[in-house]
Protein backbone atom coordinates (compact mmCIF):
# COMPACT_ATOMS: atom_id res chain seq x y z
CA UNK A 1 0.00 0.00 0.00
CA UNK A 2 1.20 3.53 -0.80
CA UNK A 3 1.89 5.60 2.28
CA UNK A 4 0.45 8.76 0.74
CA UNK A 5 -0.02 10.70 3.96
CA UNK A 6 3.40 9.91 5.44
CA UNK A 7 5.84 9.88 2.54
CA UNK A 8 5.60 13.10 0.50
CA UNK A 9 7.92 13.25 -2.50
CA UNK A 10 7.70 16.91 -3.50
CA UNK A 11 7.43 20.36 -1.97
CA UNK A 12 4.23 21.93 -3.28
CA UNK A 13 2.96 25.29 -4.50
CA UNK A 14 -0.64 26.50 -4.27
CA UNK A 15 -2.37 29.08 -6.43
CA UNK A 16 -5.90 30.21 -7.28
CA UNK A 17 -7.22 31.40 -10.63
CA UNK A 18 -10.43 33.07 -11.76
CA UNK A 19 -11.39 32.06 -15.29
CA UNK A 20 -14.33 32.97 -17.56
CA UNK A 21 -17.25 30.61 -17.97
CA UNK A 22 -19.39 30.49 -21.10
CA UNK A 23 -21.73 33.08 -19.53
CA UNK A 24 -20.95 36.80 -19.47
CA UNK A 25 -20.21 38.00 -15.96
CA UNK A 26 -19.80 34.51 -14.50
CA UNK A 27 -16.30 33.51 -13.42
CA UNK A 28 -15.10 30.21 -12.05
CA UNK A 29 -12.51 29.64 -9.33
CA UNK A 30 -9.79 27.08 -9.92
CA UNK A 31 -7.54 25.91 -7.08
CA UNK A 32 -4.16 24.53 -8.18
CA UNK A 33 -1.65 22.50 -6.19
CA UNK A 34 1.53 21.32 -7.92
CA UNK A 35 5.12 20.34 -7.14
CA UNK A 36 7.54 23.24 -6.59
CA UNK A 37 10.37 21.25 -8.15
CA UNK A 38 10.68 21.77 -11.91
CA UNK A 39 8.48 19.31 -13.74
CA UNK A 40 7.51 18.71 -17.32
CA UNK A 41 3.74 18.98 -17.48
CA UNK A 42 2.08 15.96 -19.02
CA UNK A 43 -1.42 14.65 -19.60
CA UNK A 44 -0.70 11.67 -17.37
CA UNK A 45 0.27 13.90 -14.41
CA UNK A 46 -2.55 16.47 -14.73
CA UNK A 47 -5.78 16.04 -12.79
CA UNK A 48 -8.93 18.21 -12.73
CA UNK A 49 -11.44 17.65 -9.89
CA UNK A 50 -15.03 18.73 -9.29
CA UNK A 51 -16.92 18.86 -5.99
CA UNK A 52 -20.32 17.53 -4.97
CA UNK A 53 -23.76 19.05 -4.52
CA UNK A 54 -23.31 20.93 -1.25
CA UNK A 55 -19.68 21.66 -0.39
CA UNK A 56 -17.20 23.36 -2.77
CA UNK A 57 -13.75 22.19 -3.77
CA UNK A 58 -11.80 23.83 -0.94
CA UNK A 59 -14.06 22.05 1.56
CA UNK A 60 -13.97 18.59 -0.04
CA UNK A 61 -10.46 18.43 -1.45
CA UNK A 62 -8.22 20.99 0.25
CA UNK A 63 -8.64 20.90 4.04
CA UNK A 64 -5.22 20.09 5.50
CA UNK A 65 -5.54 17.61 8.37
CA UNK A 66 -2.73 15.38 9.63
CA UNK A 67 -0.39 17.61 7.67
CA UNK A 68 -1.99 17.43 4.23
CA UNK A 69 -5.17 17.78 2.21
CA UNK A 70 -6.15 15.40 -0.58
CA UNK A 71 -4.82 17.95 -3.08
CA UNK A 72 -1.56 18.21 -1.12
CA UNK A 73 -1.11 14.44 -1.15
CA UNK A 74 -1.63 14.28 -4.90
CA UNK A 75 0.72 17.21 -5.56
CA UNK A 76 3.42 15.70 -3.31
CA UNK A 77 3.12 12.57 -5.38
CA UNK A 78 3.98 14.58 -8.48
CA UNK A 79 0.55 15.54 -9.82
CA UNK A 80 -0.52 18.94 -11.14
CA UNK A 81 -3.93 19.08 -9.44
CA UNK A 82 -6.77 21.46 -10.21
CA UNK A 83 -10.17 21.75 -8.50
CA UNK A 84 -13.00 23.85 -9.92
CA UNK A 85 -15.90 25.52 -8.16
CA UNK A 86 -19.07 25.44 -10.27
CA UNK A 87 -20.88 28.77 -10.48
CA UNK A 88 -22.80 29.43 -7.27
CA UNK A 89 -20.26 27.52 -5.17
CA UNK A 90 -17.18 28.55 -3.21
CA UNK A 91 -15.05 31.22 -4.87
CA UNK A 92 -16.93 31.25 -8.18
CA UNK A 93 -19.54 33.86 -9.09
CA UNK A 94 -22.62 33.74 -6.88
CA UNK A 95 -25.70 34.35 -9.01
CA UNK A 96 -27.95 37.32 -8.12
CA UNK A 97 -30.75 34.95 -7.10
CA UNK A 98 -28.56 33.73 -4.24
CA UNK A 99 -28.91 37.16 -2.59
CA UNK A 100 -32.69 36.84 -2.67
CA UNK A 101 -34.86 34.57 -0.49
CA UNK A 102 -34.50 30.94 -1.63
CA UNK A 103 -38.21 30.53 -2.36
CA UNK A 104 -38.26 33.48 -4.78
CA UNK A 105 -36.60 31.59 -7.64
CA UNK A 106 -36.44 28.08 -9.15
CA UNK A 107 -33.55 25.70 -8.37
CA UNK A 108 -30.18 26.98 -9.55
CA UNK A 109 -27.36 25.10 -11.32
CA UNK A 110 -28.50 21.63 -12.37
CA UNK A 111 -25.86 19.17 -13.56
CA UNK A 112 -26.13 20.19 -17.20
CA UNK A 113 -24.99 23.71 -16.28
CA UNK A 114 -22.17 22.28 -14.16
CA UNK A 115 -21.03 20.19 -17.15
CA UNK A 116 -20.44 23.44 -19.05
CA UNK A 117 -18.44 24.89 -16.15
CA UNK A 118 -16.32 21.75 -15.84
CA UNK A 119 -15.68 21.82 -19.59
CA UNK A 120 -14.50 25.45 -19.30
CA UNK A 121 -12.12 24.50 -16.48
CA UNK A 122 -10.75 21.49 -18.37
CA UNK A 123 -10.12 23.54 -21.50
CA UNK A 124 -8.36 26.25 -19.46
CA UNK A 125 -6.03 23.71 -17.87
CA UNK A 126 -5.31 22.03 -21.21
CA UNK A 127 -4.34 25.38 -22.74
CA UNK A 128 -2.34 26.59 -19.75
CA UNK A 129 -0.32 23.39 -19.41
CA UNK A 130 -0.11 22.64 -23.12
CA UNK A 131 -1.56 19.14 -22.76
CA UNK A 132 -4.08 17.47 -25.00
CA UNK A 133 -5.83 15.57 -22.24
CA UNK A 134 -6.24 15.62 -18.46
CA UNK A 135 -7.35 13.08 -15.91
CA UNK A 136 -10.72 13.78 -14.29
CA UNK A 137 -12.09 13.16 -10.78
CA UNK A 138 -15.65 13.84 -9.63
CA UNK A 139 -17.11 13.49 -6.14
CA UNK A 140 -20.79 12.55 -5.56
CA UNK A 141 -22.91 14.93 -7.71
CA UNK A 142 -19.61 16.03 -9.25
CA UNK A 143 -19.15 12.45 -10.41
CA UNK A 144 -22.42 12.87 -12.31
CA UNK A 145 -20.98 15.97 -13.97
CA UNK A 146 -17.64 14.31 -14.72
CA UNK A 147 -19.32 11.18 -16.08
CA UNK A 148 -21.60 13.20 -18.34
CA UNK A 149 -18.69 15.20 -19.76
CA UNK A 150 -16.56 12.09 -20.27
CA UNK A 151 -19.46 10.42 -22.11
CA UNK A 152 -19.71 13.43 -24.44
CA UNK A 153 -16.05 14.40 -24.88
CA UNK A 154 -13.89 11.49 -23.75
CA UNK A 155 -11.05 12.49 -26.07
CA UNK A 156 -10.23 15.35 -23.68
CA UNK A 157 -9.51 12.91 -20.85
CA UNK A 158 -7.11 10.18 -19.86
CA UNK A 159 -8.47 8.42 -16.78
CA UNK A 160 -11.75 8.99 -14.97
CA UNK A 161 -12.16 8.66 -11.18
CA UNK A 162 -15.66 8.72 -9.68
CA UNK A 163 -15.80 8.95 -5.88
CA UNK A 164 -19.17 8.06 -4.29
CA UNK A 165 -20.81 8.55 -7.70
CA UNK A 166 -24.45 9.60 -7.66
CA UNK A 167 -26.48 7.17 -9.76
CA UNK A 168 -29.94 5.62 -10.15
CA UNK A 169 -31.80 4.65 -6.98
CA UNK A 170 -35.02 2.66 -6.70
CA UNK A 171 -35.70 4.19 -3.29
CA UNK A 172 -35.72 7.82 -2.08
CA UNK A 173 -32.41 9.43 -1.20
CA UNK A 174 -31.98 11.48 1.97
CA UNK A 175 -30.49 14.31 -0.10
CA UNK A 176 -34.03 15.06 -1.34
CA UNK A 177 -36.31 15.42 1.66
CA UNK A 178 -39.36 16.09 -0.52
CA UNK A 179 -41.45 19.23 -0.83
CA UNK A 180 -40.76 22.41 -2.79
CA UNK A 181 -37.18 23.09 -3.90
CA UNK A 182 -35.88 26.65 -3.54
CA UNK A 183 -33.17 28.32 -5.60
CA UNK A 184 -30.51 27.38 -3.05
CA UNK A 185 -30.10 25.71 0.33
CA UNK A 186 -28.76 27.21 3.55
CA UNK A 187 -26.44 24.65 5.12
CA UNK A 188 -24.86 24.66 8.58
CA UNK A 189 -21.59 22.70 8.67
CA UNK A 190 -22.03 22.24 12.42
CA UNK A 191 -25.51 20.79 11.98
CA UNK A 192 -24.21 18.57 9.18
CA UNK A 193 -21.92 16.77 11.64
CA UNK A 194 -24.79 14.74 13.10
CA UNK A 195 -25.92 13.51 9.68
CA UNK A 196 -22.33 12.74 8.72
CA UNK A 197 -21.70 10.56 11.78
CA UNK A 198 -25.20 9.01 11.71
CA UNK A 199 -24.34 6.99 8.59
CA UNK A 200 -21.88 4.90 10.63
CA UNK A 201 -22.93 2.28 13.21
CA UNK A 202 -23.53 3.91 16.58
CA UNK A 203 -20.45 2.42 18.21
CA UNK A 204 -18.24 3.71 15.36
CA UNK A 205 -19.45 7.31 15.17
CA UNK A 206 -17.14 8.90 17.72
CA UNK A 207 -14.00 7.60 16.03
CA UNK A 208 -15.11 8.16 12.44
CA UNK A 209 -13.54 11.63 12.26
CA UNK A 210 -10.22 11.99 14.12
CA UNK A 211 -10.01 14.67 16.81
CA UNK A 212 -9.67 18.18 15.39
CA UNK A 213 -10.51 17.21 11.84
CA UNK A 214 -14.16 18.24 11.94
CA UNK A 215 -13.34 21.66 13.41
CA UNK A 216 -10.75 22.25 10.69
CA UNK A 217 -13.23 21.16 8.02
CA UNK A 218 -16.06 23.33 9.40
CA UNK A 219 -13.81 26.40 9.57
CA UNK A 220 -12.56 25.88 6.01
CA UNK A 221 -16.09 25.26 4.76
CA UNK A 222 -17.48 28.45 6.29
CA UNK A 223 -14.60 30.43 4.76
CA UNK A 224 -15.87 29.48 1.28
CA UNK A 225 -18.95 31.74 1.66
CA UNK A 226 -18.06 34.96 3.45
CA UNK A 227 -21.51 36.49 2.85
CA UNK A 228 -23.20 33.72 4.83
CA UNK A 229 -20.50 32.58 7.25
CA UNK A 230 -21.38 35.09 9.99
CA UNK A 231 -24.55 33.08 10.51
CA UNK A 232 -22.55 29.85 10.63
CA UNK A 233 -23.88 28.73 7.26
CA UNK A 234 -23.04 28.47 3.58
CA UNK A 235 -25.31 28.68 0.54
CA UNK A 236 -25.49 25.80 -1.95
CA UNK A 237 -27.50 25.84 -5.21
CA UNK A 238 -30.44 23.43 -5.30
CA UNK A 239 -30.12 22.21 -8.89
CA UNK A 240 -28.56 18.98 -7.64
CA UNK A 241 -31.71 18.23 -5.60
CA UNK A 242 -33.77 18.74 -8.75
CA UNK A 243 -31.40 16.36 -10.55
CA UNK A 244 -32.14 13.67 -7.96
CA UNK A 245 -35.88 14.14 -8.35
CA UNK A 246 -35.94 14.32 -12.15
CA UNK A 247 -33.23 11.79 -12.91
CA UNK A 248 -31.69 9.62 -10.20
CA UNK A 249 -34.88 8.52 -8.43
CA UNK A 250 -36.96 8.72 -11.62
CA UNK A 251 -35.09 6.06 -13.62
CA UNK A 252 -33.89 8.72 -16.06
CA UNK A 253 -30.06 8.80 -16.11
CA UNK A 254 -28.38 12.04 -17.13
CA UNK A 255 -25.81 10.24 -19.25
CA UNK A 256 -25.05 6.86 -20.79
CA UNK A 257 -22.13 5.14 -18.98
CA UNK A 258 -21.55 2.81 -21.94
CA UNK A 259 -20.44 5.86 -23.95
CA UNK A 260 -17.39 6.31 -21.68
CA UNK A 261 -14.32 4.73 -23.29
CA UNK A 262 -11.73 5.95 -20.76
CA UNK A 263 -10.30 3.78 -17.97
CA UNK A 264 -12.58 4.28 -14.95
CA UNK A 265 -12.12 3.89 -11.20
CA UNK A 266 -15.16 3.92 -8.91
CA UNK A 267 -14.50 4.50 -5.19
CA UNK A 268 -17.34 3.88 -2.77
CA UNK A 269 -17.68 3.48 1.00
CA UNK A 270 -19.15 0.73 3.18
CA UNK A 271 -21.38 3.03 5.25
CA UNK A 272 -22.41 5.45 2.50
CA UNK A 273 -26.18 5.89 2.81
CA UNK A 274 -26.28 8.67 0.20
CA UNK A 275 -24.73 6.64 -2.64
CA UNK A 276 -25.26 3.05 -1.60
CA UNK A 277 -23.01 0.24 -2.83
CA UNK A 278 -25.80 -1.19 -5.00
CA UNK A 279 -26.00 2.14 -6.85
CA UNK A 280 -22.25 2.19 -7.50
CA UNK A 281 -22.31 -1.46 -8.54
CA UNK A 282 -25.12 -0.82 -11.04
CA UNK A 283 -23.14 2.05 -12.55
CA UNK A 284 -20.06 -0.17 -12.69
CA UNK A 285 -21.86 -2.86 -14.68
CA UNK A 286 -23.05 -0.26 -17.20
CA UNK A 287 -19.51 0.96 -17.99
CA UNK A 288 -19.35 -1.51 -20.86
CA UNK A 289 -17.29 0.73 -23.14
CA UNK A 290 -14.51 1.54 -20.66
CA UNK A 291 -11.01 0.52 -21.70
CA UNK A 292 -10.79 -1.02 -18.24
CA UNK A 293 -12.61 -0.39 -14.99
CA UNK A 294 -12.21 -0.97 -11.27
CA UNK A 295 -14.54 -0.75 -8.27
CA UNK A 296 -13.01 -0.17 -4.83
CA UNK A 297 -15.03 -0.15 -1.61
CA UNK A 298 -13.44 1.51 1.42
CA UNK A 299 -14.45 -0.21 4.64
CA UNK A 300 -15.63 1.66 7.74
CA UNK A 301 -16.22 4.89 5.82
CA UNK A 302 -19.19 7.06 4.80
CA UNK A 303 -20.01 9.38 1.91
CA UNK A 304 -17.42 11.82 3.28
CA UNK A 305 -14.63 9.22 3.02
CA UNK A 306 -12.08 11.81 1.82
CA UNK A 307 -12.20 13.55 5.24
CA UNK A 308 -12.38 10.51 7.54
CA UNK A 309 -9.94 8.28 9.39
CA UNK A 310 -9.67 5.81 6.49
CA UNK A 311 -9.14 8.48 3.84
CA UNK A 312 -5.62 7.18 3.16
CA UNK A 313 -7.10 4.02 1.65
CA UNK A 314 -9.10 6.11 -0.81
CA UNK A 315 -6.03 8.24 -1.59
CA UNK A 316 -3.99 5.10 -2.23
CA UNK A 317 -6.63 3.66 -4.57
CA UNK A 318 -6.76 6.88 -6.61
CA UNK A 319 -2.99 7.31 -6.85
CA UNK A 320 -2.38 3.67 -7.74
CA UNK A 321 -4.95 3.92 -10.55
CA UNK A 322 -3.52 7.18 -11.89
CA UNK A 323 0.06 5.90 -11.70
CA UNK A 324 -0.59 2.83 -13.83
CA UNK A 325 0.91 3.00 -17.31
CA UNK A 326 -0.52 -0.21 -18.74
CA UNK A 327 -3.84 -1.99 -18.76
CA UNK A 328 -3.92 -4.44 -15.83
CA UNK A 329 -3.57 -8.08 -16.80
CA UNK A 330 -6.79 -9.98 -17.37
Automatic annotation (TrEMBL):
InterPro entries named in the record: AB_hydrolase_1, AB_hydrolase_fold, AB_hydrolase_sf
GO function terms (MF aspect): hydrolase activity
Keywords per UniProt: Hydrolase
Coiled-coil boundaries: none
Keyword Hydrolase attached: yes
Pfam family, one: Abhydrolase_1
Positions of the AB hydrolase-1 domain: 67-165
PANTHER family (alphabetical): HYDROLASE, PUTATIVE (AFU_ORTHOLOGUE AFUA_2G14860)-RELATED (PTHR43798:SF33), MONOACYLGLYCEROL LIPASE (PTHR43798)
Name this polypeptide is given: Alpha/beta hydrolase
Amino acid sequence: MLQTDNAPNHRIHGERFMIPSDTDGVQLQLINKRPVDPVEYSAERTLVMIHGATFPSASLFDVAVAGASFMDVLARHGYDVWAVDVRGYGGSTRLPEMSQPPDDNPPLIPARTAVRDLAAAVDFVRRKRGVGRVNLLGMSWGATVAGALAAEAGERFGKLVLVAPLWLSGTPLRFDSGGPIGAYRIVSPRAFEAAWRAAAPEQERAGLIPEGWFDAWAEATLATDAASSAAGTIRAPSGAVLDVRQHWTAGNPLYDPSAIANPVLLVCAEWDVDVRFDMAQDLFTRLTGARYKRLVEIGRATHMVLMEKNRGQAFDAVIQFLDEHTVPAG
